[in-house]
Amino acid sequence: MPQIRGSCFCRKVTYRADADPLFIFVCHCTTCQKTTGSAFGVMIALPADALTIDGATKINDFVGDSGKAKHHRFCPGCGSGLTNEGDVMPGVVIVFAGTLDDPSWVKPSRQIYCDSAQPWVSLEGEMERLAKTSGKAAAAS
What we know:
By secondary structure, this protein is mainly beta. It is built from two helices and eleven strands; from the N terminus they run βββαββββββββα. The protein has one domain (about 5-135): glutathione-dependent formaldehyde- activating enzyme (gfa), CATH 3.90.1590. The two termini are about 20 Å apart.
């Protein structure tokens, strides 16, 4: 089990979890593109009760493709996105891998929302590719 540690850019918000990831994936949806400021997000799903966050955060609530609420947690100081939680997957929190102190162990097994992928993105590796998916399909590994 990796010791999962990370923070926002300004380090005013830190997090930790001592749990095995439930699944790790790359998401090409337009929401991830906007919240990460990149072409895709690399995400780690964890049991929500295993994650401890220290520092003040803000939450932006919105409706996901499932029609259910999603909750994007970020640092109000530097704006770094830290986690997403969705009502479609209760008890699961998604951590943005780019905020990890050591992301070298991260190995996604699946790419989702490939229909929204930027045309110049081509990721190597043995990853299942799904055109579009709900959170439950992302979890099936």
